[in-house]
Specification:
36% of the residues are buried. The protein is built from 10 helices and 8 strands. Helix content is 41%, strand content 20%. Helix 4 packs across helix 8.
Length: 311
C-alpha cells in the first residue's frame, strides 16, 4: 500500500508542471495598417518596425525616422566589418535629362542583392546626385563636356533628396542589406542644347522605361544633330543603336569618318564594323542615316577596373 502510494507520488512528480502563457494583445486594425506602411517605406523586418512604433507611440513619421537613424548607425558599424570583401556584382545606372546625362556604377557582393529594391534605390540616388552635380558644375556648354568622378568624390555628393550625402545613403543600405557595397564611380556628359543629343543604352534585366535605366553594362554617346533636324523618333533609334554598339564592341576612341578599318582589332568607334550591320562601319552607318555625328562617349561595365580619372 505504501509502495503504491510512493509510486503514485513519483509518477506525479514526473509530470511536467503546467505552463501559463500570456496572450499577446490583439493587433488593432490601425496598428496593423501602420506596421505594414512602415515596412513598405523602410523595407526593414516587421519586428523592427513594431519596436519602432512602440517606442514612438504609434506615430508613423517618428518611427520611420528612428528606424532610419538606427539602420544608418548600424550600417556604419557593419561597413567596418565587411570592408575589403570583394564587390564584383552590382549595377550601372543611367539618367538622361535633356542635353545632360549621368552614369554611375554601384557594386555589391552578390547578384541577389543587386536585384533588391533597396540596392536599386541606392543606384538611383547616386544617379540623381551625379546629375545634380552636372547641372551645378558649369554654364551651358558650347561644345561637348565630360567629367568623371572617383569613388571618394561620388560619396560626398548629395543624393536625389537634395540633403543627405551619398555616403550616408550607402551606410543605410549596408545596414539593411548586410553586404559590402561600394559607390565605385560616376560620370556625366553635357552637350549644347541647340544642336546636341545624348544617346543611352543599358544592357541588363531592368525595365528600360524607368527614370534611371539599370543594367550590367551602360553607354552614353554625345552627338551633334545634323541639319535638317530629324524627328525625335529617328534620333532615339539611331542613337540607341550606336550606344548599343559601344556596349558590345568597347571602342576606346571616337576617330573620324575618314578612318579606314584596321580589322578585328579596330578600337576607333567610327572605323569599327557596325554591330547591327556588319557590312558597314559605324561611320558609314551614321553617314547613310544622316541624323547624328558622334562627339564623345562613355562606357561602363560592372565589375571592371575603372580607368584613371579624366576630366
Amino acid at each position: 500500500m505504501q509502495r503504491a502510494a510512493r509510486s503514485a507520488v513519483c509518477g506525479a512528480a514526473r509530470v511536467p508542471p503546467a505552463r501559463f502563457f500570456r496572450a499577446a494583445p490583439p493587433v488593432l486594425a490601425a496598428d496593423k495598417e501602420a506596421l505594414l506602411e512602415l515596412r513598405r517605406r523602410t523595407g526593414l523586418p516587421f519586428l523592427q518596425c513594431r519596436e519602432a512604433l512602440r517606442r514612438c507611440g504609434g506615430e508613423l513619421g517618428q518611427a520611420e525616422a528612428w528606424l532610419q537613424e538606427q539602420a544608418q548607425r548600424q550600417g556604419w558599424s557593419k561597413a567596418t566589418q565587411v570592408r575589403g570583401r570583394r564587390t564584383r556584382e552590382g549595377l550601372v545606372g543611367l539618367l538622361r535629362e535633356g542635353p545632360a546625362a549621368a552614369m554611375v556604377e554601384v557594386n555589391c557582393e552578390t547578384d541577389f542583392v543587386a536585384r533588391n529594391a533597396e540596392f536599386q534605390r541606392l543606384v538611383e540616388q547616386a544617379a540623381l546626385g551625379t546629375m545634380a552635380h552636372c547641372r551645378a558644375a558649369a554654364a551651358p556648354p558650347t561644345c561637348c563636356t565630360k567629367h568623371l568622378l572617383r569613388e571618394d568624390e561620388l560619396a560626398q555628393l548629395q543624393g536625389g533628396d537634395g540633403g543627405t550625402l551619398l555616403s550616408d545613403h550607402l551606410a543605410l543600405a549596408i545596414g539593411k542589406l548586410g553586404e559590402n557595397l561600394i559607390l565605385r564611380r560616376a560620370a556625366w556628359l553635357r552637350v549644347p542644347e541647340e544642336d546636341g543629343y545624348i544617346a543611352a543604352y543599358a544592357h541588363g534585366w531592368l525595365p528600360a522605361a524607368a527614370p534611371v535605366a539599370m543594367g550590367t553594362y551602360g553607354a552614353l554617346v554625345a552627338c551633334r544633330v545634323t541639319e535638317p533636324r530629324p524627328p525625335a523618333a529617328t534620333l532615339e533609334e539611331v542613337g540607341r543603336k550606336v550606344a548599343q554598339h559601344v556596349v558590345g564592341m568597347a571602342p576606346t576612341a571616337v576617330g573620324t569618318p575618314q578612318d579606314q578599318p584596321r580589322g578585328e582589332e579596330e578600337t576607333r568607334l567610327l572605323a569599327q564594323s557596325f554591330l547591327l550591320e556588319p557590312g558597314l562601319t559605324v561611320g558609314q552607318f551614321l553617314g547613310a542615316r544622316g541624323a547624328l555625328a558622334v562627339r564623345d562617349f562613355l562606357r561602363f561595365r560592372c565589375g571592371e577596373e575603372p580607368p584613371g580619372r579624366g576630366g
